Give the backbone structure.
Amino acid sequence: MYVPPPRAAAAAEYAAGGKTGPAYQRQTWDALRRSITGHVNKATAANIRHVLPELLAENLVRGRGLLCRALLRSQVACPAFTDVFAAVAAVVNSKIPDVGRILLVRLVIRLRRGHATGDKPQLAAAARFVAHLVNQGVAHELLALELLEMLLAEPTDDGVEVAVGFVAECGAALSEGCPRAVDAVFDRLRSILVDGGVDKRVGFLIEGVFAVRRARFRGHPPVRPELDLVEQDDQFTHQVEISLQLDPETHLDVFTPSATFLQDETAYDDLKRSILGDDGHDDYDEYDAESECEDGDDEDMDVTIKDETETNLIGLRRTIYLTIMSSAGAEEAGHKLLSIVRPGQEAELCAMIVECCKQERASKTRFYGQLGQRLCRVGRAYQAGFEACFARCYAAAHRMGTDELRAAAGLFAQLLAADAVPWGGVLGGVRVTEEDTTSSSRIFIKTLFQEMAEQLGVRVLGRRMNGDDPVVRDALFPRDSAKNARFAIDFFTAIGLEGVTLNLPGSSCCLKVIHPLLLHPHEISV
């Protein structure tokens, strides 16, 4: 029988060296590489619990470099399965932490290389993998924040697009771990959008991620239930810095003979038994078996199912939005909405009207103001709903864009001018002082009262602001100190509403002290 020379030479070398010779080690290395690659390629969310025991049965200490290379190659070839590959890496990292560290180091090197060379596909794939590793707890949140800082420091179309996708993937996890940092990231994205230095398509992507955030990342959960395989206490979290010099340890990807080959194999067999057990099955199979047994025991028990997906609420919001957009006028929209909304859903309807108004131009707020007046005439529940919406908008003014501030202020100005909502309930939470206002809230108040002055006139507005309601008067013109009173008067003078300050109740000596400061409106930043 003919034997090819290379095989004959390998057989002779194996016969000379046995299981400790380089030939046998090379054969086991090739078999290990093929096995790891095959297990990684066939992993899906449906069969991952069955693939993981087979993967952990291989010597992953020896093949840790091969596993990292297989995960990176498979993820680049099929980005849609990134969360599956991250789940595989998370499970292996909980047993062999060195795998997670090497994988993160290689991803960081790819991120730096892709950002430096402008290789968008490589940069996007690596960023997506890092995002899911952050969700799984393998990577620390600081790595995600460093990556966003690198992408948004000098914004380009590709960099901002990758950053938007990255925030959408791991924004929910970052919001739980470091909410202030997430606020800073979205402030940076807002400034990029306002500056207009990126392409229009990228601007639409930024607006889309803001919508995802407003929905609390409802469509982008950190980890799918079928991929949540590692307890948080069992996970090893690695902190890798982008700015440091890193070693990818590529020598682990190539075969190198070892003098302690048999001892290493024996040591991994012991580790494998501790991970999988003597019967070769790990905790995931035991979990499935226990679940099947428990299903049989719970058949006779009464189970109360509670919908936590908010499907009905999402459907209500969609119906309200479509009804508003398809109505020709405010009366038609109000008639349709009153037939849709059930008792107890008034606050949600008011919130949706305010949200829709904020997305429109300021010139189109008249429609929403008329719609709000129509609803407020129906019952007190709608008035309370708009009062709560005003409080939320005023408290979150620093997170809203200028157009959103002006649109929302125009809506509430129409409601107040028409007495659709009580002035004390709405304006009672506004305190015009230097300490209680910000630049954003002052823009909101400025637009609100300028709109009311156009509709009511300065004289009527002044009488309403300085009327008999102490809640409104003390909120708009605080008299607890001369500094606060001076600030309020200077504020309304600076925005062109000096007439509302002329009939302030109080002693003439106090007004003599305050009124000369009207000559210096530049001291207030509106």
